[in-house]
Specification:
Layout (H helix, E strand, L loop, with lengths): L1 E5 L20 E2 L2 E2 H11 L4 E6 L1 H9 L8 E6 L10 H5 L1 H4 L5 E5 L2 E3 L3 H11 L3 E7 L7 E5 L5 E6 L10 E9 L15 H12 L2 E5 L4 E3 L3 H14 L12 E2 L3 E3 L4 E2 L4 E2 L3 E3 L4 E2 L4 E3 L1 E3 L4 E2 L4 E3 L2 E2 L4 E2 L4 E2 L4 E2 L4 E2 L4 E2 L4 E2 L4 E2 L8 E2 L1
Parallel strand pairs: 1-4, 1-6, 4-5, 8-12, 14-17, 15-18, 16-19, 17-20, 18-21, 19-22, 20-23, 21-24, 22-25, 23-26, 24-27, 25-28, 26-29, 27-30, 28-31, 30-32
Antiparallel strand pairs: 2-3, 6-11, 7-13, 8-11, 9-10
Length: about 350
């Protein structure tokens, strides 16, 4: 079975970090999301993946050196200047996918612990045109919602209903097995939504099925969810990682990549992820945050609930509050405070405190 990974979105909800990398390269506990996905594919004995990309995504993907986990990767390029939705990239990759067997489709910004083999087996058993992995959530209003028969056929599919109108709490987890016949349902050369255009037709024809799974699932397209998946995995991996930094205090749970340096009397954690070659000065406090590689955090700085991009320089006595996001190569001068919800675009220099939520462009 081949897998098509949808990796061409622009990641608008994760700006300014997504200005300089596609979402599938965001590090989750110091490992790119794409690598987590490739590891899961390899674990399900899937050896061929097609990345549906736009030009910008392809450039970044080829620049980053990540482990392919034995999976052979090819690219399906979007020739247009706009996203093709969830259906357009499938039609675009039609010849690369072929017509011989069902294939897997994965939304690139989803972390989903799905057994792909079981999903395929159900698909073939039901002779379905499409089988959607479904996951239970508390609030289904952000997602496509499915209502199942006892035979796991989807009898109703509603895209992003209000919470009150949602027929169930089973949501589209962004993982599908599709039969080659699906190509006949997708128009060529334009943006197509599987959820709004294709799936309702399949429901009418009785050819859409659902596979319910209870494993870990997270849409990492929003800042709070990105921080949450890091936190969840830190807890799951807690027994595998033990860090002792001389003259600094490390609170569970944390993850440090290679080359991390931490100064005297600093307190790191709980829930801190420090990327490769991050340098932390003396008396620094970091918690509930993700720090991308190459960043320098100077003495007496405090970071709580923020995401800091690559090669950022943070001055002495800087205070960064919750929900702050700093793009790559940002420089924060000494004694600056950033209030909750401040975001700063890449390569900006900030020399004065920002005390209200805003984006510094």
């Amino acid at each position: 079975m081949k897998a098509l990974i949808l990796a061409g979105g622009f990641g608008t909800r994760l700006r300014p970090l997504s200005c300089t990398r596609p979402k599938i390269l965001f590090p989750i506990v110091n490992k790119p999301l794409l690598q987590w996905t490739l590891e899961r594919l390899a674990g399900n004995k899937i050896k061929e993946a097609i990345l549906a990309v736009n030009y910008q995504s392809e450039v970044f993907l080829k620049r980053y050196r990540i482990s392919k986990c034995g999976v052979n990767i090819t690219y399906s390029r979007d020739p247009l200047k706009k996203p093709l939705g969830t259906g357009g990239p499938i039609k675009r990759a039609e010849k690369l996918i072929g017509y011989d067997a069902p294939f897997l489709v994965l939304n690139g910004d989803i972390f989903a612990d799905v057994n792909y083999t079981e999903l395929l087996n159900m698909h073939e058993e039901k002779n379905a045109a499409a089988t959607i992995a479904l996951h239970r959530v508390e609030d289904p209003s952000r997602y496509g919602v499915a209502e199942l028969t006892k035979q796991n056929r989807i009898k109703r599919f509603v895209e992003k209903p209000s919470r009150e109108a949602a027929p169930t709490n089973l949501i589209n987890a962004g993982v599908y097995v599709l039969s080659p016949k699906i190509f006949g349902y997708i128009p060529k050369g334009r943006t197509v939504s599987l959820e709004r255009e294709v799936f309702p037709k399949l429901v009418e024809e009785g050819k859409l099925y659902g596979y319910v799974f209870d494993g870990l699932w997270m849409d990492v397209g929003k800042l709070e969810d990105y921080l949450k998946i890091n936190k969840i995995l830190l807890d799951l991996l807690a027994n595998q990682s033990k860090y002792k930094i001389e003259e600094a205090k490390v609170k569970k749970t944390v993850a440090f990549d290679r080359g991390v340096s931490i100064g005297k009397e600093s307190v790191i954690g709980p829930y801190a992820v420090l990327g490769r070659n991050v340098t932390v000065g003396k008396n620094v406090h970091i918690k509930n945050s993700v720090i991308f590689p190459g960043t320098v955090i100077s003495d007496f700085a405090s970071i709580n609930g923020a995401v800091i991009g690559e090669n950022v320089v943070i001055g002495k006595r800087v205070k960064i509050d919750e929900e702050c996001v700093l793009g790559d190569h940002v420089k924060i001068k000494d004694n600056v405070s950033l209030a909750q919800g401040v975001s700063i675009c890449p390569a900006k220099k900030v020399s004065e405190s920002v005390l209200t939520p805003k984006c510094i462009i």
